[in-house]
Amino acid sequence: MEYVKELLKDTPLKATPQRLAILKEIYEAGHIDLESIYKNLSNSFPSMSLATVYKNIHTLKKYGVIKELAISGSKSKYEIAKQKPHHHLICKVCGSVIDIEIDTSFLKKQLKDLKDFEVTNCDIYCYGICSRCKNKTSG
Ligand SMILES: [Zn+2]
Ligand SMILES: [Zn+2]
């Protein structure tokens, strides 16, 4: 729990047990959607509603503690924002999300000279089939 508590240090947010539990879920899963967080925590916090999870996620996002992934054709997934910069591989079959480091300097170079737009960051999402799903379909 100490690590996830640290994440709230630079925010005005209180480290409530629910909030810490939500952060722990996201931290341990890597990438997780709202419903899964709710489902996983329903045993430990039987009185916590989906709306409460939603509200906490919204607040954590607002203060930059977590980041929402914009995966097309899928429910929003969330990850801890404070990480090494990385991009994502997404399996079109099972929906799993895999972190990948891509050197985007070529992209920044190409986008540097845009006249009417200043690029600050690029998030890359690559879609395909993960090895687990590939083995399943071929064997
Ligand atoms: Zn897969
Ligand atoms: Zn990630």
Describe this structure in words.
The protein is α+β, with helices and mostly antiparallel strands and 139 residues long. It folds into two domains: 2-80, Winged helix-like DNA-binding domain superfamily/Winged helix DNA-binding domain (Arc Repressor Mutant, subunit A); 87-138, Dna Ligase, domain 1, CATH 3.30.1490. 40% of the residues lie in helices and 17% in strands. It has helices at residues 2-7, 17-29, 34-41, 50-62, 105-111, 131-138; strands at residues 32-33, 66-69, 77-80, 87-91, 97-100, 125-128. Bound molecules: zinc ion (ZN) (2 copies). Residues 91, 93-94, 96, 130, 132-133 line the site of one zinc ion (ZN).
Q: Kindly report the oligomeric state of this protein.
A: single chain
Q: Main β-sheet, in a few words?
A: 3 strands, antiparallel
What is the number of helices? 6
Order of helical and strand elements? HHEHHEEEEHEH
The CATH class of the largest domain is identified as Mainly Alpha
